[in-house]
User: What shape does this take?
Amino acid sequence: MTYTQLAVLAVVLVVVWDQWILRTRLLRRRVFWMSYAIIVGFQLLTNGVLTGLRIVRYDGAAILGSTTPDDGPPPAFGDGRILFAPVEDLLFGFALVVLTLTLWVAWGRRGVQREPMAGPPRAFLVPILAKVGGRPAAPAARDEPVAGRG
Assistant: This one.
């Protein structure tokens, strides 16, 4: 399979995953698309630097565009590229973001790790924290009324 085929397949799979399997339906929410606009901006910046400086190179047989040239940067736009990076990078990045967020939402709905695993410092850290001016945090009280709230 080419990178193009894998990227398209990944997008199709995460859309099905989001809409019909986990039914988180993140892709239907405006907040997702606003957040993704920020993410894709940084993705384009990072991919642009890595591919524009030819740190990462692509074979034209695996992507929509041509092979990364040996003597200079690839085209910034056109030839299957956006800011030097192949469009497949955007598709694959989209799939990774959607997969991560759908799992986050689904696990949150199921109550995975509702109580944080962190707690007061371990006994061996108490003397170290005291030397640097820190102090161990007291464990949070549970099921007690908050001062001023009846």
Summary: DSSP finds four helices and three strands in the chain.
